[in-house]
Amino acid sequence: MDVTETAGNALRWIIGILDRHNIQYQITGGLAAKLYGSPREVNDIDIDICEKDFQTILSDISHYLIDGPAHYNDGKWDGKFITINYRGQYIDISAIDSLFITNKERTEWFPYQRSYFDRLGIEIDGITLKILSPRKLIEYKKELDGEHQLIDIQAIEKYCIEHGL
User: For residue 95, what are the CA distances in angstroms to 3, 42, 80, 112?
Assistant: First the structure.
């Protein structure tokens, strides 16, 4: 796995919980981009699940819970989130079925669930990870700000070409 040991350990921990409870999920954000070839370091782990599954995992994550489940709106994202700090690695879990994102111009909100569990299974270090599909990841990263998004998009587009996607 081409992530730090801290991120890898956190990923194995949280995916173990989600798999044990048979919770559908998808990894998004910078980690998904990294797994598709982005050279950037991973800041946090972004995972989408259904809102009803928040309660299912709360007892498993309570020791590491930083915030939530709570509603959050920063002008770009609007929805329910959980934030965890697992041994130094932040994990943000969002409720995909009630999450909204604005367009880049911040003039229109649309449901993020248009990417609702459109994912690929990728095996890394013996763990099968469910990652937001590269085309959907590109779609949503094009609505985000920052030079790092362009770096991710280029890497993901290269991945799509190399894998015939």
Answer: 25, 21, 6, 10
- Are 160 and 135 a contacting pair, CB within 8 Å? yes
11, 130 contact by CB (below 8 A): no
Residue 68 contacts residue 25 (beta carbons within 8 Å): no
pLDDT, tens digit (0-9, with 9 covering 90-100), for 62-115 = 999 999 999 999 999 999 999 999 999 999 999 999 999 998 888 999 888 766
DSSP string across 62-99: GGGEEEEEEEEE-SSEEEEEEEEEETTEEEEEEEGGG-
The Cβ of residue 146 has, within 10 Å, a number of other Cβ atoms equal to 9
What is the reported pLDDT for 122? Answer: 86
- For residue 1, pLDDT over 60 is answered with no
- 5-155 maps to which CATH number? 3.30.460.40
Burial class for 111, CB neighbours closer than 10 Å (0-12, 13-18, 19+): middle
- CA atoms of 31 and 135, how far apart (whole Å): 15
Question: Taking the domains of the chain in order of start, what are their residue ranges?
Answer: 5-155
Amino acid at 121: G
- Report the distance separating Cα 46 and Cα 71, nearest Å: 16
Cis previous bond, 39, omega within 30: no
